[in-house]
Amino acid sequence: MGSAAAEEQDQAEKKSKNHSSEDPVTPEDIVSPSEAPLSFPPFSSRMLIHIKGRRHVQVRLVEPSVRSLNSGDCFLLVTPQHCILWSGEFANKQERAKGSELASFIQSRRDLGCEASHVVHLEEGLNSDSSEADDFWSLLGGRTNYRGAGVSEEDELFELGVVESNCVYSLVEDRLVPHEQAWASIPNASLLRSTEAIVFDFGSEVYLWHGRDVSPSRRDIALQLTQQVWGGEYDYSNCRVNPLDPTRCNPSIHLKGASRPSWALLAVVAEGEETALFKEKFVDSRAQEDDPAGAETPLNLTQSPEPASSDVLCPCDAKALVSGESLEAGGSVCTLLEGLDVQRGCGVITLEEGHQMELKTVAVDTWHVQEFDDSEIPVESGGQLHEGDSYVVRWTYSVTAVGQSVCVI
């Protein structure tokens, strides 16, 4: 890329790492713009996604091997037939919420080439050794040892360290120029403009993103240059975290190397066809405008007290609910729907007038409510509710009295 590229490399080295390739891309190696999305799809047949962090949870592709696991984080295994979320025993609630949201989105939207019929949730120490987990361990090469949980501060340090390895290049004429604002930071979604062709190098994932208004000739140039970035040497010696081996579990992957591992991803993404794995690398400028201090707010910052609600919420006793007794001595649980005390949702109930009615459950439907949409949860997974997530549950029941039946939702 000539002397101009050398100047750009010097600038890049000051911030993080340097990618370069002196080998020219031959015509035989060049893929036409129309073929690029097919030749470089934004997913592979077996992907292990590492979910780690607290403030802006990082979602990164890692080696699909058991040694990549640890007890302090969440991992999502995605194949054409499987969508399996494995949660370490000491994973924090932000990681669990992000993992559950991501798994539900990928499975319901058939994202990343996944056509699994449902999401399998595995909890370390609970069901991770059951027959339900057999496919998970088999796809990762068989059960073996992996790391335990790190120190409590590890998640925040990881976020800061892995972001330092981010490299972003804009296509300017016939060369890639490091993007000053996006380099070594979390890129903003506002970068993705229809007239731009941008290369995002996240270490284990390299994306060429192009807007719909980018001409075929510019896409061709951008693809050639992206292949040079991908095929060149990598150097993370100036970074606190190596994105190719973030937990230092693979001794064969070094801070500097001649090529990336075979499981890493080179992808071409067109505007409007972004995957969840790609989108998770960004922050939204619109959200920052709504809450300009939110992105920089410390975790333990004391929030201003909110005005008291007119509805007083009192915690209930789960054992009392199951037994049919309230906290008040001798009282019964009273759940009024349309003026009818449905109690536990089944059985015979007696009205004030003395009439007896039979209550039956017809159906229970559950939806997982996410940031931008919602998805219906399969019946077999309806009872799997996760702390930090939001759900809508619709209970359909019938009331039968004097030979007549009324169905109520």
CATH architecture of the largest domain: 3-Layer(aba) Sandwich
> β content, as a range?
15-25%
Please mark out the parts with pLDDT under 50 across 5 or more consecutive residues, or reply none: 1-34, 287-312
Order of helices and strands: HHEEEEHEHHEEEEHEEEHHHEEEEEEE
Number of helices: 9
**Helicity, as a percent range:** 10-25%
The count of strands amounts to 19
- Report the sheet with the most strands, covering strand number, pairing sense and barrel closure: 5 strands, mixed
What number is the mean pLDDT? 80
Work out the radius of gyration: 26 Å
Assign an overall shape: elongated
CATH fold field value of the largest domain: Severin
Going across the major beta sheet, what is the strand order? 2-1-3-4-5
In the CATH hierarchy, what is the class of the largest domain? Alpha Beta
- What do we call the CATH homologous superfamily of the largest domain? Severin
Number of domains: 3
Structural class: alpha+beta
State the end-to-end CA separation. 66 Å
Task: Give structural notes.
The chain is built from 9 helices and 19 strands. Strand 3 and strand 4 form a beta hairpin. It has 3 domains: 2-40 and 157-280, Severin (3-Layer(aba) Sandwich); 47-154, Severin; 334-371 and 388-409, no CATH class. The strands form 5 sheets. The protein has a 5-stranded mixed sheet. The chain has a 5-stranded mixed sheet with strand order 7-6-8-9-12. With 409 residues, it is an alpha+beta fold. The protein has helices spanning 2-15, 36-39, 93-109, 134-139, 154-163, 216-231, 276-279, 285-290, 318-323, and strands spanning 47-52, 58-62, 74-78, 83-87, 120-123, 167-172, 175-178, 197-201, 205-210, 234-235, 256-257, 265-270, 336-337, 340-341, 347-350, 356-369, 374-376, 390-401, 404-408. GO terms for molecular function: actin filament binding; phosphatidylinositol-4,5-bisphosphate binding. Keywords: Actin-binding.
